[in-house]
Design goal:
Radius of gyration of chain A: 38 Å
Shape of chain A: elongated
Distance between the termini of chain B: 49 Å
Distance between the termini of chain A: 120 Å
Oligomer: heterodimer
Largest interface: A-B, 35 and 53 residues
Structural class of chain B: mainly alpha
Largest sheet of chain A: 4 strands, antiparallel
Number of strands of chain A: 4
Strand content of chain A: 5-15%
Number of strands of chain B: 0
Helix content of chain B: over 70%
Strand order of the largest sheet of chain A: 1-4-3-2
Order of helices and strands of chain A: HHHEHEEE
Radius of gyration of chain B: 18 Å
Helix content of chain A: 25-40%
Number of helices of chain A: 4
C-alpha cells in the first residue's frame, strides 16, 4: 500500500493543514467583538464626522465623486483654448502671418483706423467685428531689411488720394490691433501679398 | 447587549438625519461586527483593529456619496476601505516584526498551546502584505471562495488566486515547517 500522494492530494493536504492551523490561532477566535461602549463611540464619531462633512454649494459633498485633478486641468486647458478662439480675429489670409503678443505698455501704441484691415480682402469674415471701445488698429512701418520694426508708426496714407502716391513697402508689412487688456494682435503681410481691390477704389 | 441594540437604532431618535444617515446606519448595523473580526485578523492587536473599523466608518461618514447603493456594493466598499486603511497603516509603520522563530502550532486545547498557536499565526499573518493577508483571512477563516473575495476586494479572480498561491507558499514556511524538511 503506497502512501505517496498525488499532486492534487498534496495540495488538498496543505490546504487542510493550513486552514486548521490558521483557525486554531485565529486572532478573532473566541472574541465577542467590541463592547457596547466601543460601538457607541464608533457611532458618535461617525455621526459627528457626517455632520462635519461639507455640504451644499460651498462644499464638495454635492459632488457624486471627487473631481480628479486631471479633469480639472483638462477643463482649464479647454477654457483657455476657447478663450483664445473667441478673440476677435479675421481668418488668416495667404501670405499673412498672425501673431499675438502682450504689450507691456499699450498706451504707447498709436491709434489708427480700422479701414486698414479691410484692405486684406478677406472673404465673408474678413471685415473685423465691431471692435471694443478701446481697441486700436494700426500699421507698423516695415523695418529696413525686412525685419519687424521696434517702434510703432502711424497708419500709412489711406485717404482718397491717388494710388500712385501710396508708398509701397518692400519689406513685410505689419498690422497691429491693441485690445483693451493690453493684448496686441499683429498681422505680418509678406512683401508679395497683393490686394485684389487695389485700383478699384474711386 | 441591550445597550448596543438601543444604540444601533438612531433613526427614530434623529429623524432629521436624512437618507444618507439611514444608509450609513444600516451599513454600520449590518457589518461593524464582521468588519471588526476582519480587522482583528488583519491588524493583529485589538486596539489597532478597533481603530481600523472606526476609521472605515469615519471615511464612509465623510463621503456618504461615495457609498454605492445596494447591499453587496456597500459591504464590498467597507471591506475594501478597511483593507486599504490596513495597507496605509502597514506602509506608515514600515516596522517589520522581528523574525520570531516560528514554532509548531500547538495542537492541544490547553491554554499554553492555544497561546502559542495564536502567536505563531499572528507572526505568519504579519509576514504577508496586507492584501494577501486579507485574501487569506477571507479564504481560510471566513470560507469565502475566490469569486466572492474578488468581488469584495475589487480584484480579478485570477489575481485572488495568485495572492492565495503566494500566501500559501509563505504560510507553509511558517505554519508547516515540517513539510519543507
Amino acid at each position: 500500500m503506497s502512501t505517496r500522494r498525488t499532486r492534487g492530494e498534496k495540495h488538498e493536504h496543505v490546504e487542510d493543514v493550513l486552514r486548521r492551523r490558521l483557525r486554531l490561532g485565529d486572532p478573532a477566535a473566541g472574541e465577542e467583538g467590541p463592547d457596547g461602549g466601543t460601538v457607541a463611540a464608533w457611532r458618535r464619531a461617525m455621526d459627528e464626522a457626517r455632520r462635519a462633512a461639507p455640504r451644499g454649494p460651498r462644499g464638495m459633498a454635492w459632488l457624486p465623486r471627487p473631481l480628479p485633478l486631471a479633469a480639472a486641468a483638462a477643463g482649464a486647458a479647454a477654457l483657455a483654448v476657447l478663450a483664445w478662439l473667441a478673440l476677435p480675429t479675421a481668418p488668416p489670409e495667404q501670405g499673412v502671418q498672425k501673431t499675438a503678443v502682450v504689450d507691456p505698455a499699450p498706451a504707447a501704441a498709436t491709434p489708427g483706423t480700422w479701414e486698414q484691415t479691410e484692405t486684406a480682402q478677406a472673404p465673408d469674415r474678413s471685415s473685423p467685428p465691431a471692435p471694443p471701445a478701446a481697441a486700436r488698429g494700426e500699421f507698423l512701418a516695415p523695418a529696413p531689411g525686412g525685419t519687424a520694426p521696434s517702434v510703432a508708426s502711424g497708419p500709412p496714407a489711406a485717404g482718397p488720394g491717388p494710388e500712385a502716391s501710396r508708398p509701397v513697402p518692400r519689406g513685410p508689412r505689419l498690422l497691429q490691433l491693441v485690445a483693451p487688456g493690453g493684448t496686441r494682435l499683429v498681422w505680418t503681410f509678406s512683401p508679395d501679398f497683393t490686394l485684389p481691390d487695389q485700383g478699384d477704389s474711386t | 447587549m441591550e445597550q448596543t441594540l438601543a444604540l444601533t437604532n438612531p433613526r427614530a431618535a434623529r429623524p432629521e438625519a436624512g437618507v444618507g444617515a439611514d444608509r450609513l446606519a444600516e451599513l454600520f448595523d449590518a457589518h461593524h461586527l464582521r468588519l471588526y473580526r476582519l480587522a482583528r485578523r488583519l491588524a493583529g492587536d485589538p486596539e489597532a483593529a478597533r481603530d481600523l473599523v472606526q476609521q472605515t466608518f469615519l471615511r464612509a461618514a465623510r463621503r456618504p456619496a461615495a457609498l454605492p447603493t445596494g447591499e453587496p456594493g456597500g459591504e464590498a466598499w467597507l471591506v475594501r476601505t478597511l483593507v486599504n486603511l490596513c495597507r496605509d497603516r502597514h506602509r506608515r509603520r514600515r516596522v517589520r516584526q522581528a523574525a520570531v522563530l516560528p514554532r509548531a502550532v500547538g495542537r492541544g486545547s490547553d491554554p499554553e498551546a492555544r497561546a502559542v498557536a495564536r502567536a505563531t499565526v499572528a507572526v505568519a499573518l504579519a509576514a504577508l502584505p496586507p492584501r494577501q493577508r486579507a485574501v487569506v483571512a477571507l479564504h481560510y477563516l471566513e470560507d469565502r471562495d475566490a469569486g466572492d473575495i474578488a468581488r469584495l476586494l475589487g480584484l480579478a479572480r485570477v489575481t485572488v488566486r495568485w495572492h492565495l498561491a503566494a500566501a500559501r507558499r509563505r504560510l507553509r514556511q511558517i505554519l508547516m515547517p515540517e513539510a519543507d524538511t
